[in-house]
């Protein structure tokens, strides 16, 4: 049976409504129709199933164990303690008793069944949050710098993330009618959306805001990146980068990861209209035939950067100024206590793969629940899947410190390697339909084995950046890892090497389709050479390039972009 194209589904969806109401009410199946599975993404949810149970359920002639992942829209990733407690209650009532911080600086829930999907959405709304556009072919959750040392600049970046997110939500009222039971108006299903139209964008669109010298949002991995320029202590505006993206497909040369191009500088008051022009260009020129080739990065490479920039400036009605000087030191998070500019304190906590759950010896969900009950500031989640307990008055530090110790929350000083504290992994198996190999569940085991090599070569304190992805789509931004594993099949990965610690250089393929023993065997001599031959302060990826072990990747335009960024 052939299905309609995603483009046809969007156009004929009556503003993203489809038959979602009817599908939710159908008690016979835990699934939604093919068409509604595509539309529910725009409402912040993916239909999944437990792949660990597939074979057994098939043998029992049962349909797959359908469940839904729900992602919250939270521009800049800031939550109040009251919201934290409400999200915790949702996780324990409707989901799989865990919260997961995503690489797009928000939370997602796993394991919600269809009959409780609507109640979960309403509980999220009661927390003064929503899931609109957290998925789908629209502007996704907007990232913003979370560096706790820059309290005032963080507040400005967060405010801009909020503005950009609100400005580019779809105009349809479908979300409110379907999930919140709001009244249908006369023109329901026919709302005008001047920016998105009836077909929305060809694919997802991602925006991030970075505040140098920290690139904790991996700004060049986004379709649109804003790099804050601070002059005389104030935000003067943003350098603008376009065309980043991590997704690729194995064996398809037309797909590849790409870093964004810096194209100029924009004043704050023109940021919204510039963004609207950029999204409109992608709307009109993006590939609507082949979805794997539909991201903005391919639009730029297909039509040429100069043409795309000219189109953007024409539609915006002004020209960008030349980009201003900036530099990044690293793209990681800070751990432990640091004092902000406003004399309040911030505690950075490391969380393996962003998963917050109660495990033996590490009851993190309960611990953070207890902290939320007394915390007077805010919680900031980072794009590296970590957590900052922010805005703590000096006289409250002791209470929060005691709770963090009691519930084994890792402030980054716990025993282990720097590599472990900087590592990231996507969810992958058992719930992601695209996963070819393990990632989140494999990360602790793999880092423990890699730790043995690091200890052997005296490198436990070296800040090597590891990322693992269960497939080439790159949700954990693996192509920006100094060491990265990209899943090919169960237990087998492509070994990628050579990115830098600033998020300004892609890695490249070093070994293809190999298992764990071969991965460790390949890394052992490289780590030995790094320990013996590195320069002072030289990162592992930089050493691999200087030594000629790896070269810049040969993706279109990348060598030029990488050299420009390094300059």
What does this structure look like?
There is one protein chain. The protein contains 18 helices and 22 strands. By secondary structure, the chain is an alpha+beta fold. Helix 5 runs antiparallel to helix 12, helix 9 packs across helix 11 and helix 10 crosses helix 11.
Query: Biggest sheet, strands in spatial order?
Result: 1-2-5-4-13
The 3D shape can be described as globular
| Contiguous uncertain segments of 5+ residues | 557-567
Major sheet description: 5 strands, antiparallel
Helix percentage: 25-40%
What's the gyration radius in Å?
Answer: 23 Å
Count, helices: 18
Q: How many extended strands?
A: 22
Q: Based on helices, strands and strand pairing, what is the structural class? A: alpha+beta
Determine the N-to-C terminus distance. Answer: 53 Å
Q: What number is the mean pLDDT? A: 94
Proportion of beta-strand residues: 15-25%
Summarize the structure.
By secondary structure, this protein is α+β, with helices and mostly antiparallel strands. The protein has helices at residues 6-11, 20-25, 34-39, 54-59, 81-93, 117-126, 151-167, 174-180, 271-285, 296-303, 305-316, 364-374, 397-406, 418-422, 443-456, 516-533, 540-546, 558-566, and strands spanning 45-49, 66-71, 78-79, 99-101, 107-112, 143-144, 207-210, 224-231, 234-242, 261-266, 336-339, 345-349, 355-356, 358-359, 362-363, 378-381, 387-392, 424-425, 466-469, 483-489, 492-497, 508-514.
């Amino acid at each position: 049976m052939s299905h309609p194209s995603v483009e046809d589904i969007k156009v004929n969806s009556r503003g993203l409504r489809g038959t979602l109401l009817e599908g939710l009410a159908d008690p016979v199946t835990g699934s939604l129709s093919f068409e509604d599975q595509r539309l529910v993404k725009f409402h912040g949810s993916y239909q999944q199933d437990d792949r660990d149970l597939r074979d057994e359920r098939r043998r029992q002639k049962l349909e797959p164990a359908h469940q839904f992942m729900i992602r919250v829209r939270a521009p800049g990733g800031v939550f109040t303690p009251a919201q934290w407690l409400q999200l915790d209650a949702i996780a324990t009532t409707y989901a799989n008793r865990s919260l997961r911080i995503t690489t797009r600086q928000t939370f997602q829930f796993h394991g919600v069944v269809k009959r409780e999907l609507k109640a979960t959405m309403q509980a999220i709304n009661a927390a003064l949050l929503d899931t609109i556009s957290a998925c789908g072919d629209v502007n996704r959750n907007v990232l913003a710098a979370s560096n706790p040392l820059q309290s005032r600049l963080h507040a400005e970046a967060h405010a801009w993330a909020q503005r950009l997110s609100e400005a580019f939500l779809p105009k349809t009222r479908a979300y409110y009618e379907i999930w919140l039971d709001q009244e249908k108006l006369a023109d329901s299903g026919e709302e005008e959306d001047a920016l998105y139209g009836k077909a929305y964008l060809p694919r997802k669109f991602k925006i991030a805001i970075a505040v140098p010298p920290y690139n904790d949002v991996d700004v060049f991995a986004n379709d649109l990146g804003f790099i804050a320029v601070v002059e005389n202590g104030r935000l003067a505006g943003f350098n603008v980068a376009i065309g980043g993206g991590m997704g690729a497909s194995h064996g398809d040369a037309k797909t590849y990861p790409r870093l964004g191009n810096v194209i100029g500088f924009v004043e704050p008051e023109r940021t919204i209209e510039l963004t609207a022009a950029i999204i409109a260009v992608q709307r009109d020129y993006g590939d609507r035939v082949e979805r794997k080739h539909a991201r903005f990065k391919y639009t730029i490479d297909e039509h040429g950067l100069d043409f795309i920039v000219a189109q953007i400036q024409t539609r915006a009605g002004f020209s960008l100024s030349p980009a201003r000087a900036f530099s990044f030191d690293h793209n990681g998070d800070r751990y432990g206590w640091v004092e902000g500019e406003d004399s309040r304190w911030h505690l950075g906590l490391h969380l393996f793969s962003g998963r917050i759950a109660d495990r033996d010896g590490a009851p993190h969900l309960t611990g953070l629940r207890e902290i939320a009950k007394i915390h007077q500031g805010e919680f900031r989640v980072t794009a590296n899947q970590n957590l900052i307990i922010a805005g703590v008055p000096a006289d409250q530090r002791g209470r929060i410190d005691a709770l963090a110790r009691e519930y084994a929350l890792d402030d980054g000083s716990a025993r282990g390697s720097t590599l472990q504290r900087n590592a990231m992994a996507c969810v992958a198996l058992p719930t992601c339909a695209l996963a070819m190999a393990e990632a989140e569940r494999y990360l602790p085991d793999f880092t423990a084995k890699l730790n043995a090599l690091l200890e052997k070569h005296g490198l436990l304190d070296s800040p090597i950046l590891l990322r693992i992805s269960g497939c080439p789509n790159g949700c954990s931004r693996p192509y920006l890892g100094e060491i990265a594993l990209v899943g090919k099949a169960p237990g087998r990965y492509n070994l990628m090497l050579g990115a830098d610690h600033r998020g300004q250089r892609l890695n490249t393929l070093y070994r293809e389709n190999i298992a764990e023993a071969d991965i460790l065997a390949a890394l052992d001599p490289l780590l030995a050479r790094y320990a013996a031959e590195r320069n002072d302060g030289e990162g592992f990826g930089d050493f691999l390039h200087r030594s000629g072990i790896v070269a810049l990747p040969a993706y279109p335009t990348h060598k030029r972009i990488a050299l420009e960024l390094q300059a």
